[in-house]
Specification:
globular, 16% strand, three-stranded antiparallel sheet, 13 helices, seven-stranded mixed sheet, binds pyridoxal-5'-phosphate, alpha/beta
């Protein structure tokens, strides 16, 4: 039988969440950082209308979608590329700039797909230590070598939820060699956006990419649309690697409508932030460690790896699926996506029972 190329055969399968609830239990998925709200009604209506055009290939230039992004973010259309999720963009960026003998640098608890994309490209993945579950610019700079081609920073971070302040990002860009590409993955950027705090100006320097997605704050994870701001020369190269018909007609129109419904998205962020801060505070009161999050999830740190495993099992018994963090080097932690009030109350009840029993035993 034919065998896969060695570097592919050596890779583990991408670790997706296991989401099979116990018999008779409703699934409460807090595992994949999906939105607590349905998509904007205008996005749903646009997608439904567009289905009638499905005999045609989609617009390969994402013209209307790019216009919507450009209007809202005041970006030049040539700077915008759209992907089948930002995962497609991440994969193509690595493939475009790194290969065998090159290094891709990220931080200790970075998004797992950075490593996967690096392995596919046959480059070497290097992880720099974090400090207090936050990206350390000094550690990143200390890990740069003559072979470093791409540096990824997820900001806010996944799975930590923590933010690296803009001046630190600027310090990182200023200190990196010109020939090193900095990719700032802002998949959760909408939850952390503050006026005057945008990284988008950095793109004009020519060696920085900022990525965003419709999967989180816009609630369109199932439609697979990501986008990024690229220096034009880099956009032209990365574009050669994208599937030319990468985003379906229904997905393009839904994403454009969602982008034009900023007030709906901001309300989603507001509701998420309220639930998150309330839940985080309650979990801290149980004696667990929860770093301040600027995303739609929180990282819950337990005393030991064993406690995290037992709590995960207790939650699963009730149909509640958080994400175990052993694969991220945080085996003592679970990552909980912020869902609606009822689901978060149930999760808190289970954690509270668990902590009570644990102190008694
Ligand atoms: C969810 C996530 C993405 C991927 O999003 P898609 O656009 O759905 O592919 C990228 N980066 C980080 C850090 C994420 O958490």
């Amino acid at each position: 039988m034919i065998t896969a190329r060695d570097h592919i055969a050596a890779m583990a399968s991408y670790a997706l969440a296991d989401l099979t609830p116990p018999q008779g239990k409703r699934l409460i998925s807090l595992a994949q950082n999906e939105s607590l709200r349905l998509p904007s009604p205008t996005a749903i209506a646009a997608a439904r209308d567009a289905l009638a055009s499905s005999a045609l290939y989609p617009d390969p230039d994402w013209s209307d979608l790019r216009s919507a992004i450009g209007e809202v973010h005041r970006a030049a259309l040539e700077a915008i590329l759209c992907g089948a999720g930002s995962m497609e963009l991440i994969g193509c960026i690595v493939q475009c700039f790194a290969g065998s003998g090159d290094e891709v640098l990220a931080s200790e608890y970075s998004y797992a797909f950075f490593r996967t994309a690096t392995q596919v490209a046959q480059a070497d993945y290097v992880a720099a230590a974090e400090e207090n579950l936050t990206v350390s610019v000094d550690a990143l700079l200390g890990a740069v070598s003559g072979r470093t081609r791409v540096v990824f920073v997820a900001n806010p971070g996944n799975p930590t939820g923590t933010v690296l302040p803009l001046p630190e990002i600027v310090r990182l860009r200023d200190a990196l060699p010109d020939g090193v590409l900095l990719v700032i993955d802002e998949a959760y950027g909408e939850f952390a956006d503050m006026p005057g705090n945008s990284t988008f100006d950095l793109v004009e320097r020519g060696n920085t990419i900022v990525l965003r997605t419709f999967s989180k704050a816009y609630g369109l994870a199932g439609l697979r649309v990501g986008w990024g701001l690229f220096p034009p020369g880099i956009a032209a190269e990365v574009r050669k690697l994208l599937n030319p018909n990468n985003i379906s007609i229904a997905s393009q129109v839904a994403a454009a409508a969602a982008m034009r419904d900023q007030s709906y998205m901001r309300e989603t962020c507001r509701q998420t932030g309220d639930q998150r801060d309330g839940f985080g505070e309650s979990v801290r009161r149980l004696g667990l460690h929860v770093p301040q999050s600027s995303t739609n999830f929180v990282l819950i740190g337990f005393e030991t790896d064993r406690s995290a495993q037992l709590a995960d099992a207790a939650l699963r018994d009730q149909g509640i699926f958080m994400r175990g963090m052993a694969g991220y080097g945080l085996a003592h932690a679970l990552r909980a996506t912020i869902a609606g009030a009822d689901d978060m109350r149930l999760a808190l009840d289970v954690l509270s029972d668990f902590c009570t029993k644990e102190t008694q035993s």
